[in-house]
Amino acid sequence: MIRLLLWILGGVLLGGVVHLATVLALPQTATQDAYSRLVPITPVNAMAPLAPPSSEAAIMPFMDPAFAAAVCRYDLSNGPLKFNAPVTQTYTSVTFYTRASVAYYAINDRAAGRKAIELDLMTPEQHAEMPEEEGVTSADRLIIESPTKTGLIVLRALAAEPGLMPAVRRVLAAARCQIEAAS
Questions:
Q1: Domain interval for residue 9
Q2: pLDDT tens for each residue of 123-146
């Protein structure tokens, strides 16, 4: 009887290890991750609106039809990125993802406390090379350090009613994501 229980325990432990290894390896082996899905429809270092989700097709899974979304696929190889997005009257959020779909920063309109979300995105190396500006505080200039040179910036805005969706899409169309001009 003890021998049977040991075999069962060994099988359960082996099954748990295989399950855990599979779950941890899947994100690395997935070929249709968010970045790969967005490559054909989004330019590099520019905002691109996402089509509204439908029951037949959605660019990304679990998209909320009450939110309008736009994406910037960034590449920091040529320098820091300047991001500017006006906020809507209801709710606006910006989330930053690495190439491997790991979220590393998020901000919403309430945290920004302004009529626009403005920030600079750069690698830690680019940030270290920046000259020290006297009189400029973190409240004046928000700098986000990206752990990778490539990734995604996802801008979402809530349309409180379906009739407000065109106005929300116009606000998102005014968002900018571009390489900072050298000064």
A1: 1-30
A2: 999 888 887 765 455 555 788 999
Best CA proximity match to 74, nearest among 106, 36, 44, 100: 44
Same domain (yes/no): 85, 13: no
C-alpha to C-alpha distance for 109 and 41, rounded to whole angstroms: 26
The count of structural domains within the chain is 2
What's the pTM value of the predicted model, to 2 decimals?
0.79
